[in-house]
Amino acid sequence: MDKELKIQNSLTRQKEIFKPINPPFVGMYVCGPTVYSDAHMGNVRTFMSFDVMNRYLRHLGYKVRYVRNITDVGHLVDDADDGEDKIGKKAKLENVEPMEIVQRYANGFHRVMDLFNILEPDIEPTATGHIVEQIEINKKLLENGWAYEKNGSIYFDVSKYNEAHEYGVLSGRKIEDLQSNTRTLDGQDDKKNPLDFALWKKASDDHIMRWPSPWSDGFPGWHLECTVMSTKYLGETFDIHGGGMDLKFPHHECEIAQSVGANGKKPVNYWIHTNMLTVNGQKMSKSLGNSFLPTQLVTGDHKMLEQGYTPMTVRFFMMQTHYSSTLDFSNEALKAAQKGYRRLANGLKIVKSLSFQNDEGKKNDQVIKQIDQACEGCYKSMNDDFNTAKTIAQLFELLKKINSLHTGQLKYGEVGQDAFEKLSETYQTFMEEILGLKEETPTAVDPIIDALLEVYKKAKAEKNYKQVDEIRAILKSNKLIIKDLKTGVDWGYEE
After folding, report:
1. Does the CA dihedral 21-25-30-36 come out positive or negative?
2. 3-class DSSP state for residue 207?
3. CA 137 to CA 255: how far, in whole Å?
4. Contact at 8 Å (CB) between 326 and 336?
5. Residues forming a β-bridge with 70
6. Rg (Cα) of the chain, in Å, rounded?
């Protein structure tokens, strides 16, 4: 079985064999939400992608420390250096404490993560909980000559840094091009260069969220927060860091510069970025009116949605596309995903009910080989830069064997006990443990469905076809179907 994991590294723009710094320990950090608005679908895709990476690395036996921060300092408009504090603005409008706004949106974010079966991180630090450390790294950058103070604010000197290092190493951007394309924003007169970014910002008189520092009462720069929190919990250099591709520049680029400036070494070995979302081929955005919240996708309460889709349907839909590729939403694609998920969910339900039986079937080497190849294909696909799309294709191959065993078209003797156990274990492990796809029918309803099936079987034996149709209709109204098989009567999810 292929165990060599390859990762597409945004830093080198090629796939590299994953070699953790301290095997079997893996340090992984993803930039979490800024909690001044509801979680959006881009959040869900990014955190779902890293959830699968986390799950798979643990399955392979790595000891993972997964850190996902919460940005609870009110960031500003423009380039995160100037403008209006968004959390402060909401707090003023509602006449509440800023941290009430933070808590409300943080709670909502966690509910969305639970909805889509995204595991909790090992550590979820907050920016406001690490103000002291951010002040200390400011001091260090000033001492090392990479930052300067002006009127109570601290800025990172990008031009000076670029003389000794490469600013733009992650995004591939050249400082000359950036300088020629940079506009001067109001309030940036304190900067030596428009590319310089704030490490600490002096607060205006009406700015609510502020902390004392040696330079002013103010607040930390956006980019600095992640540098402080990631290195505190994962070390000055760690394995994996990422987020949405929109963070590659300037956020992650600035993180690299800060870390190199403060610690003299690169902070991350593997950078991973998830791609953007589109709707019917157009970029998803509020201005176009084609963006919807995760809860709207589930309820169907949006003008662009023909219906609601279950959380596992959405999770399956997202995993049908590799995390680094654009993901396009459409009603047609979501409906197809609904059918695909239900087929796999039916297989999960069936395989849990199967147990090996000694029957008259004779060993079939070709069938056993097909099972082995599909099982190994699941690992090969995940080892190919966490390719969930290819993994799902392998699960559908295993599903064919599961259904054939269930219907009696394939004998247990043809498969053999070893291959059967491998088939069952691989399918369940990849569905539930690695991809995080679970059955959505509560177990409490199973006895009710079983009772209905008993009535159904009796009605069918007595040729009471009216009652047979009524029972079928009851289950169908709940997206369930009855299966009349050679081996008996069973139920499944409507596909």
Report:
1. negative
2. coil
3. 12
4. no
5. 126
6. 27
Q: φ and ψ at 126, to 5 degrees?
A: -115, 150
What value does the mean pLDDT take over residues 425-445? Answer: 86
Contact 29, 39 (CB under 8 A): no
97-109 pLDDT per residue, tens:
888 988 999 999 9
For residue 9, what are the β-bridge partners? 14
Residue owning tokens 């830069």: 385
Confidence category of residue 115, pLDDT binned at 50, 70, 90 = very high
Is 67:106 a contact under the CB 8 Å cutoff? no
> Which candidate, 161, 155, 339, 118, places its Cα nearest to that of 264?
161
C-alpha dihedral, 21 to 246 to 218 to 261, nearest 10°: 40
Q: What is the pLDDT of residue 449?
A: 72
Average pLDDT of the chain? 91
Residues 6+ apart with CB under 8 A from 23: 62
Dist. CA 451–CA 439, nearest whole Å: 20
DSSP state of 29: E
Return d(Cα 110, Cα 118) in angstroms, integer: 9
- For residues 300 and 313, give the distance between their C-alpha atoms in angstroms, rounded to a whole number: 13
- Cβ-contact 159, 116 below 8 angstroms: no
Residue located via tokens 């699960």: 395
In 14-163, beta strands by DSSP E? 14-17, 25-30, 63-68, 147-150, 153-156
Q: What are the structure tokens assigned to 260, written together? A: 């190199």
Q: Which residues contact 181 (CB under 8 A, 6 or more apart)?
A: none
Residues 6+ apart with CB under 8 A from 22: none
Q: Average the pLDDT over 351-376 and give the result.
A: 95
Residue range 283-292: average pLDDT? 84
- For the segment 137-160, the average pLDDT, to the nearest whole number, is 97
Alpha-carbon gap, residue 54 to 68, rounded angstroms = 11
Rounded CA separation 404/409 (Å): 5
